TrEMBL record, chain A:
It comes from Enhygromyxa salina. Keywords: Membrane, Transmembrane, Transmembrane helix. The chain crosses the membrane at residues 48-67, 79-101, 107-130. This is Uncharacterized protein. It comes from the Bacteria.
Automatic annotation (TrEMBL), chain B:
InterPro entries: Multihaem_cyt_sf, Multiheme_Cytochr_ET, Paired_CXXCH_1. Keywords: Oxidoreductase, Signal. It holds the Pfam family Paired_CXXCH_1. Transmembrane segments: none annotated. This is Dissimilatory sulfite reductase. Its EC number is 1.8.99.-. It is an enzyme of class 1 (oxidoreductase). Residues 389-422 form the Doubled CXXCH motif domain. One of its GO terms (molecular function) is oxidoreductase activity. Residues 1-17 form the signal peptide.
Amino acid sequence: MSPERHIRASIALVALFLAAGLWLEAMYGLRAEGWLDDPLRREFLRLGHAHGGLLGILNLALAWALERLQTPAGWARKIRVAALVGAALVGLGFMLGGLIHGPTDPGLPVLAVPAGAMLLLSSLAATALVKPDDAL
Amino acid sequence: MARPWLASTLLFGPALAWSLAAVAGLVWTGADASAWTELDRHGDPVAGSDSCRSCHPAQWQTWHRSWHRTMTQRPEPASLGPLALAVDPAPEAEAEGETGQAGVLAPFAGEQLDYGGFRATMDRGADGVPRVLVERLDDAGEAVVGAPVLDAAVALSVGSHRYQQYLAYLDRGGGEGELHRLPVAWHRAERRWIHMNGAFVEPEGEDGSLADYERHLSRWNDNCIFCHNTEAVPGLDPGSAGFRSELGELGIACEACHGPAQAHIDRHRGNPLRRLLASSERGTDGSIANPATLGPARESEICGRCHGQRIARDIAAVMREGDGFVAGDELASISRPIFADSTIAGVEGLDRGRPFAARFWPDGTPRLSAYEYQGLLLSPCWSEGEGLGCGHCHDMHGDAPDGQLRAGRTGQGACVDCHRADELGGAEQLGGHGGHGEAVDCLGCHMPRISYGLLEGMITHRISSPDPAAWIGRGDQPDACTQCHVDRSREWAARSMSALGLRGSPIVARPHADEAAASRVVLDLLGGDPIQRNLAAHALARPGATASLDARAAWIADGLEDEYPSVRWFAWRGLRSLAERMAPNARRAALLAALERFDYLGPIDERVEVVTRIRALVGPAPLTDDPELRERLLSERQALAIWIGE
């Protein structure tokens, strides 16, 4: 993934989860029953909105850091993919897990959250550790 | 050396490994029979309501707000004594009632209640435990004489909604494990002590008779224990006739309706993936009962276990080991509901072969509370368990603790889900269905208040259509129409039904001769049996009842002179309610002041004095202009004592 495409995709991710926040706010304002009366759904939709938005911003910071640290192109390309997919999985995993949930726990999509978190952690670790001369 | 795989492995490997592990775990859990199979939970231990809280916080909160939870409580610092408790949750931090003490509504600060020739003093022992002391009064009823006849430390409290009763360990032949209900209770609404004889439908006892005073000093271990607690085991030892009672949990907790939960907890806490998969299909978890997915019959049987008095199939086994019922079981496998013609094996000849008949109206409709399940079974909506169940109108996890009614299922909301608006004969329109309009909803006529319980007139759960024409000539049962049209006769009601085009039987019988002189409800108040008199007094005071406040006040005041304390209670409360709605003037003020001095449990001479004053204020008693009929009705009252076997 090119640096430019990473930045554009990160901004799109932020926009997507900010729009989700607008939706949640509208549901609150309109007193939507499935939102107000369902604490588990509220909690997980909020988690998805907050994580998705913040991790989108984290991707922007990561894009800047990869340039600044002159991370080798082979590593940087894969780090960008992992970070972007990780952010999307965390945000969407929370939101979908809250939308389709059972009596006590979120739905199956929440299993995507740990996978996304691992991708992000790996990306951050690689960004911090890989040096300009660590070519693949 | 180029290592192109290294970056991919480090970046994507952990997430890929997690994903593969999660998928494998889901597949394994889905295929694992032990994670899904129906478990036999009979005999399982109770896990306790606190163990449900972390996974079901919303349901736990609604239960915690309910009257079910506080049905039986242990007042701190009372000792639990010989009673074995599987789960004893920490006492509530927030106290209720007058005391600041969790589990106790009454003050227990030295209050006294004189009744029936005895004085009860409610205070606390040196250790702070609530105590009830009963002493005999002298002939003048002023000073105590002799040693106390009862000195009991409260071990448990029962109830918290209408009145709170108290239990104490008293060895009366059943060993040190015997808990007995004390003869006085705290009436929450009136914030006063009452004697239990006043809470039951029965005539006054003999003044100074200890046996009459202690009529309701009944044993808890083989009676109240069942429906006021979770997983009760009386523990009767047939050899010694003593009790070693055990409870799962005090009060009606989660497992009373869902069954023992330990297997459910083990299954779901041990494997989080099982919880995630539980989301995918409702009602497939064989480790717990969810009444909402059981269907109307099984679901209603869970409620009917307590809200429908019944007879155990094997009484001796139940006394030893409890009834063994687990939510989801067929209730008929362990007991049968009591109906008017039910008998008890071995004593079929008891009370002319119909020992329970007095608990039902002549048409078989229950006339006491705690028979709601029977009412449902007798309703056309029941339809052999395929129609209406308790959960249609009631929601144990809703917002309203009183009645626990499901949102949207009050008033006509209870009916319109099944009865389409265009099938209701105009009932859905304002002014339709006989012009009742908005003042009367479906329940007013189809579930009238013709049941008595806990010093209240309650709606019947036998759903039916009023048919006063079928009961013309009879005075032994109230009907929906004249319970609101309190100034009318049954014949009037029957003719009105016909005139309004409402369905009903043809009028063939001759009207009751007495109805020419007074309305059906007034006749009930004067000459009905005690429950009819209770309900007549209750009906006369209701806001929607016809007739002027003044007329109703004059009629209802007759109940203040009744020989049954419960009738006097209804009449006193009803008259106070009517007076409060009268226009403010000197007469109203004098009436309220007189009522303030009336104690329905007080000495008869004091009551007579106050009633004389009240009568002068409200006008002549009903049928004063027909003294012969009045005397006949009063003398013909059926002195029907009913023992409510809770």
